[in-house]
């Protein structure tokens, strides 16, 4: 990893780590486990309640869903709306910032449609070669 220089308050120069991949912060925010499926559902299904999301996502635990929803709210990609009624109701909705990821998701769907058969074929060829599988 290379470094960038940054001046401190006293004027001295110190080396800052430099990330050679400018998309890493985006990948960290958007493509962590469960984040993309949550955003996808909210984008295509509209506002949803916690249990609706959990049912649609299938194997996600309540703890993991809670953590992901909090992180997405913190990142500004969804809004949590609490309705003070009995029983209490909370809705989750994608924000404009979250919707701005739509072109990226659309390109990824196109790439997946075009290339996942090739990836699966490469995986089969690798597996059939007898080489050790990655863990």
Automatic annotation (TrEMBL):
Gene3D superfamilies for this protein: Winged helix-like DNA-binding domain superfamily/Winged helix DNA-binding domain (1.10.10.10)
Residue ranges annotated for the HTH hxlR-type domain, each copy included: 21-120
Pfam families assigned to the protein according to its UniProt record, in alphabetical order: HxlR
Source organism per UniProt: Streptomyces silvisoli
Name of the molecule in the record: Helix-turn-helix domain-containing protein
SUPFAM superfamilies: Winged helix' DNA-binding domain
PROSITE patterns in the cross-refs: HTH_HXLR
PANTHER family found in the cross-reference section: HTH-TYPE TRANSCRIPTIONAL REGULATOR YODB (PTHR33204:SF37), TRANSCRIPTIONAL REGULATOR, MARR FAMILY (PTHR33204)
Highest classification ranks of the organism: Bacteria, Bacillati, Actinomycetota, Actinomycetes, Kitasatosporales
Keywords noted in UniProt: DNA-binding, Transcription, Transcription regulation
Keyword Aminoacyl-tRNA synthetase annotated: no
Family matches, as InterPro entries: ArsR-like_HTH (IPR011991), HTH_HxlR (IPR002577), WH-like_DNA-bd_sf (IPR036388), WH_DNA-bd_sf (IPR036390)
């Amino acid at each position: 990893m290379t470094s960038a220089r940054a001046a401190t308050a006293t004027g001295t120069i110190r080396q800052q780590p430099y990330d050679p991949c400018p998309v890493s912060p985006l990948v960290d925010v958007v493509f962590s486990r469960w984040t993309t499926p949550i955003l996808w559902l909210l984008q295509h299904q509209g506002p949803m309640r916690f249990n609706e999301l959990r049912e649609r996502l299938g194997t996600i635990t309540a703890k993991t869903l809670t953590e992901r929803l909090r992180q997405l709210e913190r990142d500004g990609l969804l809004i949590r709306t609490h309705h003070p009624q009995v029983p209490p109701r909370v809705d989750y909705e994608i924000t404009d910032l979250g919707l701005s990821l739509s072109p990226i998701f659309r390109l990824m769907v196109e790439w997946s449609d075009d290339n996942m058969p090739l990836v699966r074929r490469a995986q089969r060829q690798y597996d059939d070669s007898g080489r050790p599988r990655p863990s």
